[in-house]
Specification:
Largest sheet of chain B: 5 strands, mixed, barrel
CATH topology of chain B: fumarase
Strand content of chain B: 25-35%
CATH class of chain B: Alpha Beta
CATH architecture of chain B: Alpha-Beta Barrel
Structural class of chain B: alpha/beta
Oligomer: heterodimer
Distance between the termini of chain A: 17 Å
Helix content of chain A: 25-40%
Shape of chain A: globular
Number of helices of chain A: 9
Strand order of the largest sheet of chain B: 2-3-6-7-9
Largest sheet of chain A: 5 strands, mixed
Shape of chain B: globular
Structural class of chain A: alpha+beta
Strand content of chain A: 15-25%
Helix content of chain B: 25-40%
CATH superfamily of chain B: Fe-S hydro-lyase, tartrate dehydratase beta-type, catalytic domain
Order of helices and strands of chain A: HEEHHHEHEEHEHEHHEEEE
Chain lengths: ~325, ~190
């Protein structure tokens, strides 16, 4: 495997400053002439890598998403509010990247997926991860976004029950892979879960029924989820697993191909049909309502047939890193 | 492109129509869920809102040496204020609401009855919009948490689209009807 080192110049300025200002724990080694050389411990190196990951996720749109946004921009007609919206969106993407500041002020639910080898210490990772989240919040890369549901209090550091949301998965490889999604509240609020059959929509327990409820969700979302958006859909599972899987679909590349033929067909059909509804960017009317749709399936009980839909806004913040053994970033996953 | 400048007045607000692209310059106040909830429960706003604009926004604000700096400030979804917004129009005389996603019939009626418009900012465009904020002039009700507080800000050429005017027209209602019909054909 070729190892790509992340050069210092590639590290966002805010992170550079952060590293300079407040180094994480270091071990000090005395060298000649009394100079002190700071060495990064694996823990402090993980802190740096996660802070860089959060920064890049919050401030830059992945290439596969940007390509779809550009296609959408070209599709909209001149002198329309739809075109105007897409122009501002494009400018915003450039500006956020240049200034290393959040694409959207709602920096969302912080969702980590960590794939790790046997023997990985999840507790240690969690501790360092919390520190990185706190630092990113102090830097204004993340908004103070975590509210106590009972008291309404915002402690201001994005740490609390369920925050950040970290999913660990053991895999057979020796490497550690960390993926991150920042999912804003506006788009989360237009997510939906349907139980089939649905009499009102005349949606039965088959792929046609699934199609009907997905399109119903798009129609109900209108512009409220900051469209043009991307859907992550899970057919089956229990209510909880269905929603989790629908979000996992959003980690897929927008231009990938679903291995299950029926689902590949469904994904394409949903995008094509949704774009005929005329909802358009921001719900202003126009040709671009969806940028993509990704569908997965879990087994279900004979009694249940759920379709769980997560909507992702155009400010599609996901990123991922592959870590070296010393916790430096060896590769960006998107 | 229409330019709307502070101080705002009702006559100019009444001239605005759905589909107008507007650049707003002057003062505005952020106010979202907790602010509307508190006002609805009977607490008076800490500032005079007559002829002012409320912006549904929870900005990212960094405090540096006693000064505030906005690093991101796009709109939040407005429909959550649907139960309360018309009351703020009636009781405190606001002339504009900026948000995203549009609002419902209560707000539309409020706009007509009290002379107010709904301006749609581009959701997610936190950087483009933050650049239009020249200064943060004050903060009120900070106890609600930074995103929920009332931030008094001065903006220049803040880009919005009128999607609900003071004559009973709503782009959101129109698009909803049309897309419902279009969907029926596709099923």
């Amino acid at each position: 495997m070729t190892v790509i080192l992340i050069l210092f110049k590639d590290i966002p300025m805010a992170v550079r400053k952060a590293i300079k200002k407040k180094p994480a724990k270091t071990t000090k080694k005395k060298v000649k002439k009394g100079k002190v050389l700071a060495l990064r411990t694996p823990e402090s190196q993980l802190f740096d890598s996660l802070l860089i990951l959060i920064t890049k996720a919050s401030t830059e749109i992945p290439d596969d998403v940007q390509r779809e946004i550009i296609k959408g921009l070209k599709r909209e007609l001149k002198n329309t509010t739809a075109k105007y919206a897409m122009d501002i969106i494009t400018k915003n993407i450039e500006l956020a990247k240049k200034k290393i500041q959040p694409l959207c002020q709602d920096t969302g639910t912080i969702i980590f997926y960590v794939n790790h080898p046997v023997g990985f210490n999840q507790g240690d990772f969690t501790k360092t991860c919390h520190k990185a989240v706190v630092q990113a919040t102090k830097l204004g890369i993340l908004r103070q976004n975590s509210v106590n549901s009972l008291t309404g209090k915002n402690e201001g550091m994005n740490i609390g029950p369920g925050h950040p949301n970290i999913h660990f998965h053991e895999h057979k490889k020796k490497t550690v892979e960390v993926k991150l999604m920042l999912k804003g509240g506006g788009c989360e609020n237009v997510g939906a879960q349907y139980a089939l059959p649905n009499t009102e929509l005349e949606a039965g327990r088959d792929l046609d029924g699934v199609r009907k409820v997905i399109l119903d969700a798009v129609q109900k979302a209108q512009g409220k989820g900051c469209g043009p958006g991307v859907l992550g859909v899970c057919i089956g599972g229990d209510r909880g697993a269905g929603y989790v899987n629908s979000k996992e679909q959003l980690f897929r590349m927008l231009d990938d191909t679903n291995e299950i033929k029926e689902l590949e067909k469904l994904e394409k059909d949903i995008v094509k049909t949704a774009n005929k509804l005329g909802i358009g960017p921001m719900g202003f009317g126009g040709k671009t309502t969806l940028l993509g749709c990704k569908v997965g399936a879990l087994n279900r009980l004979p009694a249940s047939f759920y379709v769980s839909i997560s909507y992702m806004c155009w400010a599609y913040r996901r990123q991922g890193i592959l870590l070296r053994r010393d916790n430096k970033i060896s590769k960006w996953l998107y | 492109m229409i330019k709307l400048k502070y101080p705002f007045d009702k006559k100019e607000i009444r001239k605005l129509k759905v589909g107008d692209m507007v650049l707003i310059s002057g003062k505005m106040y952020t106010g979202r869920d907790a602010v509307h909830h508190r006002i609805h429960n009977g607490t008076k706003p800490p500032v005079d809102l007559k002829n002012q604009i409320i912006y549904h926004c929870g900005p990212v604000v960094v405090e540096e040496k006693g000064k505030y700096r906005v690093t991101a400030a796009g709109p939040t979804t407005s429909i959550r204020e649907e139960p309360y917004q018309w009351e703020v129009m009636r009781d405190y005389g606001i002339v504009g609401v900026i948000g995203k996603g549009g609002m419902g019939p209560k707000t539309l009626k409020g706009c007509k009855d009290y002379g107010c418009v709904y301006f749609h900012a581009i959701g997610g465009a936190a950087q483009v919009l933050a650049e239009k904020i020249i200064s943060i002039d004050n903060v009120y009700w900070k106890d609600l948490g930074s995103p929920e507080a009332i931030w008094e800000m001065t903006v220049e050429d803040f880009p919005v689209v009128v999607t609900m005017d003071s004559h009973g027209n709503s782009l959101h209602a129109k698009i909803n009807d049309e897309s419902t019909k279009a969907l029926k054909k596709e099923l």
